[in-house]
UniProtKB/TrEMBL annotation:
<dbReference type="Pfam" id="PF13556">
    <property type="entry name" value="HTH_30"/>
</dbReference>
<protein>
    <recommendedName>
        <fullName>Sugar diacid regulator</fullName>
    </recommendedName>
</protein>
<dbReference type="InterPro" id="IPR051448">
    <property type="entry name" value="CdaR-like_regulators"/>
</dbReference>
<comment type="similarity">
    <text>Belongs to the CdaR family.</text>
</comment>
<dbReference type="InterPro" id="IPR041522">
    <property type="entry name" value="CdaR_GGDEF"/>
</dbReference>
<dbReference type="InterPro" id="IPR042070">
    <property type="entry name" value="PucR_C-HTH_sf"/>
</dbReference>
<dbReference type="Pfam" id="PF17853">
    <property type="entry name" value="GGDEF_2"/>
</dbReference>
<feature type="domain" description="CdaR GGDEF-like">
    <location>
        <begin position="150"/>
        <end position="261"/>
    </location>
</feature>
<dbReference type="InterPro" id="IPR008599">
    <property type="entry name" value="Diacid_rec"/>
</dbReference>
<dbReference type="InterPro" id="IPR025736">
    <property type="entry name" value="PucR_C-HTH_dom"/>
</dbReference>
<feature type="domain" description="PucR C-terminal helix-turn-helix">
    <location>
        <begin position="307"/>
        <end position="362"/>
    </location>
</feature>
<dbReference type="Pfam" id="PF05651">
    <property type="entry name" value="Diacid_rec"/>
</dbReference>
<feature type="domain" description="Putative sugar diacid recognition">
    <location>
        <begin position="10"/>
        <end position="139"/>
    </location>
</feature>
Amino acid sequence: MEEIMSYPISRPLASQIVDAVSDVCEKNINFITPDGEIIASTDSSRIGTYHEIGRRAAQSGTLMEIPQDSLYPGTKAGINLPVYHNGELLAIIGISGDPKEVSKYAHLAERITRLLVCESEGNLHLRDLEQKRGYLIQKLLKGAPITPEDLETLPSDLNLELQTPSRILLIQLGHQFPQTGIPAVEPEIYHLFRSLELTLYCFQYPREYLAILPEPKLTNCRETLSHFGEKHKGSLCMGIGKCTSPQQLMHSYQTCQIALKSAQLSGSSCVFFDQLYLELLLSDVSSDLQQEYFSRTVSHLSSEDRELLLVYYEENMSLVAVCERLYLHKNTLQYRLNRIRKVTGLNPRDFEDAVILYLGLKLSPVPS
């Protein structure tokens, strides 16, 4: 069974958290450890019992709903929310009741838990750890040398192997997330980092999460990163930079930003710098010039014709393949290609004109 690293919470503090959350939402509250044990509850009979969904929520790192009582061992209807702080799992907060009704209390319960933990422990350990992570990462991104003294200040599990090639992983949230407060997706991002066994990561204001990804872990990470990106497509995008030595991570960060920009332009959820070709040239083109080129080429085409043109080039200009993919009659496709030629003055079938049109498509704004 996967071991889940967590920040230890005393039973008295757990009871204090349960009472505080219950006072606000007037519901039965359970404080569940990552192992699934209820160590504090408004229902004293449940203290010391096992909570199956609490354990699963800790493993998945996501909020889990239970629609009815006794659906799983030791559970009642409600929600179970993993609470993280600076990437460390604090506990699972269970709120009993109709999930549709009690879900509105989830992030309030999360904030209360964090606040009481910080007050009780003085936030010394967590703040110190966060500062050390951030300090080391910023030195690496600026190309500043890492001294033995820098490494000695870090806990052993955060130690950086200076001989291990690594990449920068950057996750940028969409503008639907507010710049203030804690984004709802943050626990899932930290759970992603932990599931990939990444130890050096930080938050960058206003809406970015950055991690150092050692190259030996990349093979096992690709599928997980792509799956995470697809799961949250439209709400965030991810860029992964080129592989460099830790001392050259500033270059990986620069290429990571190019990958991220490409993801934003193309509407992709996850882009590796190594996958880019044409985008390497376009990344240095100013936004004004990009807009000018787009205006001269495909801006007057409808979104449907742009989509058709993109499929046409993806299918290597095969009329048969495009018709099969878009369920079009050949005559209809020919008519629309001729219409595109009239609107743009460029022939989609001609190689040179096709290159011009394709670049225009690559520079098309991503629909919101």
